[in-house]
Amino acid sequence: MSADTSAPGTTATPPRRRLSRQLLSYTLIGGSGVALDLVVFLLLHNAAGMNEQIANAISTTLGIANNFALNARFTFERRDRLVVRFLRFYAVGLTGIALTNLLFLAFTDGLGIDANLIKAGSLPLVLALQFVLNRKWSFA
């Protein structure tokens, strides 16, 4: 008979509680990646005058690498197949780059809204999308 992980007295974490813990950890770790991403973007775009699309690709790549290392260790506790998992995690990260770039095209290029506002405003949407994709594919 298999153990019910949600039954009282078991040592396994109930699925709903585990999901909540993972989401919290992912969000906190994501915050460090977002901070890194945003600071690098601001430096490259504002201080160095780099095009926002290129600055976004570089800054997001650094955030992705930061988040992968920390999420593999702390959120999803997976240390196997790291190269495959990183490639999947990076592919998910590319969806964030693509989504943000589409928002730049629509709101910065199309409507003239400041790229810094679009970058900051895109982060919660990108975080939610990437959590679902990474949980189901990168760290499954």
TrEMBL record:
GtrA/DPMS transmembrane domain boundaries: 26-139
Primary localization class, coarse: membrane
Membrane topology of this protein: Multi-pass membrane protein
A Pfam family assignment: GtrA_DPMS_TM
Family annotation (InterPro entries): GtrA_CellWall_Glycosyl (IPR051401), GtrA_DPMS_TM (IPR007267)
Transmembrane residue ranges: 23-48, 86-107
Entry's localization field: Membrane
Record key words, sorted: Membrane, Transmembrane, Transmembrane helix
Family: Belongs to the GtrA family.
Name of the protein in its database record: GtrA family protein
Organism of origin: Streptomyces pseudovenezuelae
